[in-house]
């Protein structure tokens, strides 16, 4: 399964990549902001996206809205420090399927990834 | 009868002012507590390090150690100001090793990236605890240099919370105020750093 990591922090992308590899995901693409991700979603065609909120150039919410408006249907898991309920609601309305608040443990991220994929399959 | 009414109003006013003062004090204490809790949460979850918070002090007091690595986040919205996560180099290297699993030198761009992500998570987790406030955080900046000083807004009280953990000592400086207070024309933009 192809997974795209969208986060401006290389450290965070590496942590997420390591967790995904432990879960058995091998095809992983990285993007450093929303604009970079938009340029890569076409050729890479991810089946799951992990997206940060606060990023330079284009933030995660703008990316999600644009991706959905362009017909992107893959499940999106937002991984962010934005923990307020209002933000979670805003993200869900924008087209996010599931939400993880940083800091996270490898177990909590793994659980949310599996949950997101299970829900997407059932839909 | 009139005297009795005046006395009652006097009591009510005094009680109200005391309540207001207590509320403000509580709010300040609550915000400081938010940063203590969020720092503990980030270090224990992402670095497997237990931190101990010391007694907070105002930033004008003599710092307990020299800042050599600082991650800076700006806050805007209902609360405005900045948060600075500062380390001596030795602590920063130990902390980044615990965070990334790799030994890095401060000259590496990945080192600054990791420091930025730490202050991002601490600020994000703390602001989520500001009940009823709509607050946004900026992308982080990182300053590296011996003895640098991050200038704080002149019209906000700056509080330093010292921390200790197995990786060494570090601090979280908070200089935030409500947006109403920030509208004061004497306020200055805080985001400048000077090397000593």
Would you give an account of this structure?
- The complex is a heterodimer of chains A (123) and B (196).
- With 123 residues, chain A is α/β, with parallel strands linked by helices.
- Chain A has five helices and five strands; from the N terminus they run E-H-E-H-E-H-E-H-E-H.
- In chain A, helix 3 links the parallel strand 3 and strand 4.
- Chain A is globular and about 30 Å long.
- Chain B contains four helices and ten strands.
- With 196 residues, chain B is of the alpha+beta class.
- In chain B, the strands form two sheets. In chain B, strands 1, 2, 3, 4, 5, 6, 8 and 9 form an eight-stranded antiparallel beta sheet that branches. A two-stranded antiparallel sheet of chain B has the order 7-10.
- Chain B has one domain: Chemotaxis protein chec (3-Layer(aba) Sandwich).
- Chain B is globular and about 45 Å long.
- Chains A and B meet through helix 1 of A and helix 1 and helix 3 of B.
What's the gist of this structure?
The complex is a heterodimer of chains A (123) and B (196). Chain A is of the alpha/beta class and 123 residues long. In chain A, 50% of the residues lie in helices and 19% in strands.
Helical stretch tally of chain B = 4
Question: What count of domains describes the coordinates of chain A?
Answer: 1
CATH topology of chain A: Rossmann fold
Please describe the biggest sheet of chain B, giving its number of strands, its sense, and whether it closes into a barrel: 8 strands, antiparallel
Low-confidence stretches of chain B: 9-27, 185-192
Secondary structure category of chain A: alpha/beta
Q: Which spans of chain A have pLDDT < 50 for at least 5 consecutive residues?
A: none
Terminal-residue CA separation of chain A: 18 Å
CATH architecture descriptor of chain B: 3-Layer(aba) Sandwich
- The proportion of strand residues of chain A reads 15-25%
CATH superfamily label of chain A? Response regulator
Indicate the CATH class of chain B.
Alpha Beta
The computed structural class of chain B is: alpha+beta
Please name the two chains that share the biggest interface, counting residues whose Cβ lies under 8 Å from a Cβ on the partner chain. Answer: A-B, 21 and 22 residues
Order of helices and strands of chain A: EHEHEHEHEH
List the strand order in the largest sheet of chain A: 2-1-3-4-5
C-alpha geometry of chain B: globular
CA distance, first residue to last residue of chain B: 67 Å
